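ARCHIVE CARD
CATEGORY: sequence design from structure
SOURCE FIELD: tokenized fold
FIELD CONTENT:
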């Protein structure tokens, strides 16, 4: 997860889907078949998505316990793309999100902006990677319900990690970079017919306690507790021309953290919005998606 420290973070706007129209009769859904459809769809999606770049705009804010803003928000702009390796290490496919920081609060980025606290990583995981076939075995999936959205059946799946690794904390000045592999579960809303993921929510399954190192400037070893870490990613269909195709691509990511103890500000929020999708074609030429 991104490093945490008492710096500005982002406004929470909620995790609800748009209102849905319920049907008296919804189709029966085979969970294993649906997971297979999702995995196949994602592998084809990442194969196509690696030729696409977008503009990612990020807002980071922080608040005290009374939800009063602490400091000024930060606004960062990136050029973002994904890299897909169909073989990966040991034959396991992998996908990485690659970001190039373009500006911070409207100015060119400085040397300390790239790895600042709470900003997206320059190279990180794609949220959808947890649903790839090679990763599905790490979770217990349950079919929660099926609803009709815009005339199409949409299934909500929950996933719970089967195994958790010990949490690791790496300090860089005031920043605590926390690695909690196997500590996150969530829910996915999936178009039953196509296997497209419409929304993906992830959350920390239990609090994580960590302690300041002995070499901290204040000379203390106070305990802190990461109480919650919630993220919600929404997707939308984007049409491209030359050749014509439509892909389900990220529209926004909203994330919030709650921390007790230590020298941290209690609440941090981050919003990421994606726009200006364009595709590389022959000769390195870029083609914008219509209407973006």
């Amino acid at each position: 997860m991104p490093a945490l420290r008492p710096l500005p973070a982002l406004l929470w706007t909620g995790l609800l889907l748009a209102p849905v129209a319920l049907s008296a009769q919804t189709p029966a859904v085979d969970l294993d078949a649906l997971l297979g459809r999702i995995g196949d769809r994602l592998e084809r999606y990442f194969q196509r998505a690696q030729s696409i770049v977008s503009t990612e705009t990020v807002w980071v804010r922080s608040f005290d316990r009374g939800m009063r803003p602490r400091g000024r928000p930060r606004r960062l702009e990136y050029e973002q793309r994904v890299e897909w390796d169909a073989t990966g290490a040991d034959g396991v496919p992998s996908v990485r999100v690659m970001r190039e920081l373009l500006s911070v609060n409207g100015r060119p980025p400085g040397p300390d902006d790239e790895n600042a606290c709470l900003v997206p990583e320059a190279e990180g995981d794609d949220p959808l990677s947890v649903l790839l076939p090679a990763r599905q075995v790490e979770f217990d999936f349950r079919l929660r319900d099926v609803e009709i959205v815009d005339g199409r059946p949409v299934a909500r799946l929950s996933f719970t990690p089967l195994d958790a690794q010990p949490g690791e904390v790496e300090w860089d000045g005031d920043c605590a970079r926390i690695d909690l592999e196997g500590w996150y579960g969530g829910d996915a809303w999936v178009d039953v017919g196509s296997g497209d993921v419409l929304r993906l929510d992830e959350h920390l399954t239990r609090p994580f306690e960590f302690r300041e190192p002995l070499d901290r400037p204040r000379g203390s070893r106070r305990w802190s507790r990461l109480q919650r870490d919630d993220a919600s990613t929404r997707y939308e269909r984007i049409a491209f021309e030359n050749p014509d195709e439509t892909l389900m691509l990220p529209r926004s990511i909203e994330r919030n953290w709650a921390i007790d103890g230590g020298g941290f500000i209690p609440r941090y929020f981050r919003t990421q919005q994606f726009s200006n999708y364009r595709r590389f074609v022959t000769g390195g030429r870029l083609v914008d998606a219509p209407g973006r």
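CARD ANNOTATION: The longest strand covers residues 223-240. The mean pLDDT is 85.
SHELF: design records, drawer C
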